[in-house]
Amino acid sequence: MKYPQTVDQLLRPKAHAKPLVLDLFAGCGGLALGFEAQGFETLGFEMDVDCCASYRHNLHGDCVNVKLDTNYQFPKAQVVIGGPPCQPFSVGGYQNGIRDARDGFPAFVSAVEQAQPDVWLFENVRGLMYRNKRLSGRDHS
Ligand SMILES: C[S@@+](CC[C@H](N)C(=O)[O-])C[C@H]1O[C@@H](n2cnc3c(N)ncnc32)[C@H](O)[C@@H]1O
Predict the structure, then answer these.
(1) Is residue 37 in some structural domain?
(2) CB count, 10 Å around CB of 33?
């Protein structure tokens, strides 16, 4: 089976099961909304209390108000999604990447290791893929 068909099959909710989606750096729940609309149960993790309140307002799923790090204990889940903070990677900033204390990728990787999901997905800015234009001397805009 080709990769896109495999992912489609894994992501299709079963008739009697509600697969659990862990939504890291959940914000107001925009990334999770489509999963919930397709029959998944979502559980958000977000450090900002107002974002969490919006998440609970926008979705049926709960939102855990927590500042994530690699020590956080995640439950098992079928799917892990997240949009870690983009500031460490954005070309609008200094692109300190893994040297930036806001880098959320270690916590995301820890969640994937613990939850052992069938599928994981993260979104971020394209600056994740190349060096800062100010540092490299090239204009990537
Ligand atoms: C790019 S936004 C996520 C947007 C979200 N996916 C959505 O669709 O609405 C990143 C979010 O991560 C949260 N955040 C940043 N660092 C965090 C941390 N260590 N633990 C938990 N949440 C964090 C921020 O408060 C922010 O709401």
Answers:
(1) yes
(2) 16
pTM here is 0.88
51 is catalytic: no
Over residues 7-53, the pLDDT tens digits come to 888 888 777 788 999 999 999 999 999 999 999 999 999 999 999 99
Q: How many structural domains comprise the chain?
A: 1
Question: Does 67 contact ligand 1 (Cβ within 6 A)?
Answer: yes
- Helix boundaries (H) for the chain: 3-11, 30-37, 49-58, 105-115, 133-136
Residue 107 resides in a domain: yes
**Ligand 1 centroid to residue 22 C-alpha, Å:** 13
Tell me, using a 6 A CB cutoff, whether residue 33 lines ligand 1.
Answer: no
**Which atom of ligand 1 is closest in space to residue 28's alpha carbon?**
9
